[in-house]
Design brief:
Layout lengths: L4 E5 L20 E5 L6 H10 E5 L7 H13 L2 H23 L2 H19 L6 H14 L3 E6 L7 E6 L4 H19 L10 E2 L23 H13 L7 H14 L8 H9 L13 H7 L4 H12 L16 E2 L7 E2 L5 H12 L3 E6 L5 H4 L10 E5 L2 E4 H16 L5 E4 L5 H10 L9 E4 L5 E2 L5 H10 L7 H21 L10 H4 E2 L6 H7 L2 H8 L5 E6 L9 H10 L3 E7 L7 E6 L2 E6 L14 E10 H7 L10 H12 L5 E11 L3 E11 L13 E5 L2 H4 L8 H6 L2 H7 L4
Parallel strand pairs: 8-23, 9-12, 9-16, 12-13, 17-23
Antiparallel strand pairs: 1-2, 3-5, 3-6, 4-5, 7-18, 10-11, 14-15, 16-20, 17-20, 18-19, 21-22
Helix pairs in contact: 3-4, 5-6, 7-9, 12-21, 16-17
């Protein structure tokens, strides 16, 4: 809005300001225009000849970053306060350099600000993508690269690069090539919203302008008519207002003669009469995907029958209201901090004998991590550890590498994948040469997949009318109720609990929960392959990809071995933010209970321990629970039937998932679908599986579900703790 160059500064409130007496500062900043006398026209021209503006294409939620900035400014912690003073000094230097026409020095100041104060205050303002671009530019252009300029709340989106004017054109071409190359390399793990762009720009000396158009020139841009005319043409002519009629007549006349509106009529026709859909994907047909990923049609039909019969559903996720759910008693949970050195000796002996392996669960895309960007969380370079940005997978492999070094024996590391993550993880590991891991790395592809279903009216009514909902204003609530009614009619018309197949194949599939990750090892041949080269294997440590502090701790392994349990479950002391169930005595039996199964939500806050989703499994005892022996792994039919039989005993949780169906050119509809999942924690309900429970420190058991957790994780010493467990 403001023309040219300007200083935007916070100012103290004074008498006469609306904030005076309420706030120390004014809500809105003060804008000071730098005139031609302040910054000479020659300097402005030199800046344009040196600065390259780009958008790197990254899309990240900067909300947590802005909250952190505010927090740092309010708390005035020593490091951040000193960085703030440095930033203020750099700001003054930048203004002086602009006024003095020192563009190269300006680039040095913006670069120093990014490397210094910005990252001292907010380490998450940088990322691997940005730093790799800067490094390549520095290497290629040397002293002719004058500096990096961060233009947003965090880097990766709007950015600036300053070069010697003689190399700007060359740099524009190379920057685009470099950004595209880096995006292609990292896009499986880093969220991108668009391809990188290099802009042509000039200093706007006029600010925001408006021009009044009258008569035949009073036309909107062509894109406006592409959006507004189709809905008007779908209406009955007699229902149009006089304004709408006039606008249509004006547009119709102009579209015949105005070159700026050429092609708009065809675009409008395409929107009214969209082209037929071509339902193809790179992954193939729906039937092909189902067959490839181990779709169990028998089990699927059982789920559908149970849905139609009312035996499972959103309401049936919960245990009966009269279920007694109490907190643990004394002696139910052992403390890892109190384990003796004898357990460590026993664990080290098992490790040295090659009796333990690690299974890292990386089948999910981690939608909470990138707000549904469709990337693979396991490949996200989430934090700088040991001087470099590390992905989740690299960090877990580094921990296993240290275990190998300490025990003197190889540690097989298995990474479970799914149709969402397998190809990306396989390609990334091959490109990184498995991060130099000296042991065996196995990928365990998913052999269980779900097909979404049309929801039942019963479940839709429960979700929309019986669960707590935010009440809208009267008119908005009427619209919402009307929409819900239409979707219930759609579900009845399509057939409740029928297969949902009217969409792109990948939109019809769904993951079926981490209960299947251990059975997948039985079905996909990975366990058989592992046992053929390592018959001494007895124990598997299973953990989520985002549980960063977990590793093959010899003391805990020794405790698991000594306990003789078929499964040892690690739990952590509950914090307020820990939601999703925990460890409880349910009708007198000690077990893990999922948040979905709690009859009343408030019961969760009475539970002392939270499930860290880390399990130590005795392999032979677990096979026995499935009714299998090691030799049975060669017989796929027997394995499949064993998995299907035990799956039928596990609770089935039903959830609603909104799915987009795109059609035509830019149109999309959103439909609710049903999907199911089974969760591994419910194995603790089996009477034939003996389980023990061990409380571990939070640094070991905490899961990183959202980027907003990273700052606290870094500051409370957890990141340093993880680094101490790694050998890079």
């Amino acid at each position: 809005m403001w023309p040219g160059m300007k200083l935007i500064q916070g100012v103290l409130s004074t008498e006469g300001d609306i904030e005076y007496g309420i706030s120390r500062g004014c809500l809105l900043p003060r804008h000071t225009i730098l005139t031609q006398e302040d910054v000479a026209p020659l300097t402005r021209q030199q800046l344009q000849e040196s600065l390259i503006l780009v958008h790197g294409g990254m899309a990240q939620d900067v909300g947590p970053i802005l909250e952190m900035v505010t927090e740092r400014y309010l708390l005035r912690s020593t490091k951040e306060w000193e960085a703030r003073q440095q930033a203020i000094a750099l700001f003054d230097a930048i203004v002086a350099q602009l006024k003095g026409g020192k563009i190269q020095a300006l680039g040095g100041s913006t670069h120093a600000n990014f490397l210094g104060p910005i990252q001292d205050i907010i380490p998450w303002a940088t990322n691997l993508y940005t730093e790799s671009i800067i490094a390549e530019v520095e290497e290629e252009f040397g002293k002719d690269f004058w500096g990096f300029w961060m233009l947003g709340g965090m880097s990766g989106g709007g950015m600036g690069f300053l070069f010697h004017p003689s190399r700007k054109r060359e740099a524009q071409t190379r920057l685009l090539e470099i950004m595209r190359s880096k995006k292609q390399r990292y896009e499986c793990g880093i969220p991108f919203a668009m391809d990188p762009v290099v802009y042509e720009f000039s200093v706007n000396e006029h600010g925001s302008l408006a021009e009044l158009l009258v008569g035949e020139r009073a036309l909107h841009p062509s894109t406006y008519y592409s959006l507004t005319v189709p809905p008007l043409l779908r209406k009955e002519p007699r229902t149009l207002s006089s304004y709408d009629r006039t606008e249509l007549e004006h547009f119709s006349s102009a579209a015949r003669t105005d070159p700026a509106l050429s092609g708009v009529l065809q675009n409008i026709i395409d929107r009214i009469l969209p082209e037929g859909e071509v339902r193809t994907t790179q992954s193939g047909s729906l039937e092909g995907l189902l067959d490839r990923h181990g779709f169990d049609r028998v089990h699927h039909e059982r789920i559908k029958a149970d849905l139609r019969g009312g035996r499972i559903g959103l309401a049936q996720n919960r245990l009966p209201i009269n279920t007694t759910i109490l907190d643990v008693e004394q002696g139910d949970v052992a403390e890892s901090d109190g384990l003796s050195s004898e357990y460590r000796t026993l664990g080290m002996k098992a490790l040295a004998a090659g009796e333990a392996a690690v299974l890292t669960l990386a089948a999910g895309a981690g939608t909470r991590w990138t707000k549904g960007a469709g990337t693979v969380k396991a490949l996200n370079p989430f934090c700088r550890i040991g001087g470099a940005h590390r992905t989740f997978i690299e960090t877990h492999l580094a921990k296993s590498r240290l275990t190998m070094k300490q025990s003197g024996a190889g540690v097989p590391h298995v990474i479970s994948t799914s149709y969402l993550t397998h190809d990306a993880i396989k390609s990334a590991l091959e490109a990184e040469r498995y991060y130099g891991y000296e042991g065996d790395v196995f990928l365990s592809p998913g052999r269980a997949i779900g097909l979404r279903m049309i929801p039942t009216v019963r479940d839709l009514r429960f979700a929309w009318m019986e669960m707590p909902q935010q009440l809208l204003d009267e008119q908005a609530q009427k619209v919402l109720d009307s929409l819900h009614g239409a979707l219930m009619e759609w579900a009845e018309r399509r057939g409740e609990a029928n297969d949902y197949t009217d969409n792109l194949p990948l939109q019809c599939l769904h993951p079926v929960g981490h209960w299947y990750e251990i059975p997948n090892l039985f079905r996909n041949g990975v366990l058989q392959q592992l046992l053929s080269t390592r018959p001494q294997l007895k124990h598997i440590l299973v953990h989520n990809i985002d549980t960063m502090g977990v590793h093959l701790d010899p003391t805990i392994l020794g405790y698991h071995v000594q306990s003789g349990a078929g499964m040892t479950v690690e739990v952590i002391a509950r914090w307020l933010d820990d939601r999703g169930g925990g460890l409880a005595r349910t009708d007198g039996r000690l077990r893990l209970i999922e948040g979905l199964a709690l009859p009343r939500e408030e019961l969760e806050f009475s539970l002392s321990y939270y499930n860290s989703a880390t399990y130590w499994i005795d392999l032979d005892q677990m096979l026995k629970v499935f009714g299998l022996h090691r030799d049975d792994l060669k017989h796929q039919e027997k394995v499949s039937e064993a998995v299907r039989t035990l799956a039928a005993r596990m609770p089935t949780y039903i959830t609603l998932k909104n799915v987009k169906k795109r059609w035509g050119k830019g149109q999309e509809d959103v439909y609710p679908t049903l999907q199911f999942e089974k969760l591994w924690g419910d194995m603790t309900t089996l009477p034939e599986l003996r389980c023990s429970y061990l409380a571990v420190p939070r640094k070991r058991g905490q899961q990183l579900k959202e980027p907003a957790q990273l700052d606290g994780w870094l500051r409370d010493g957890s990141a340093e703790y993880v680094h101490s467990l790694c050998h890079w």
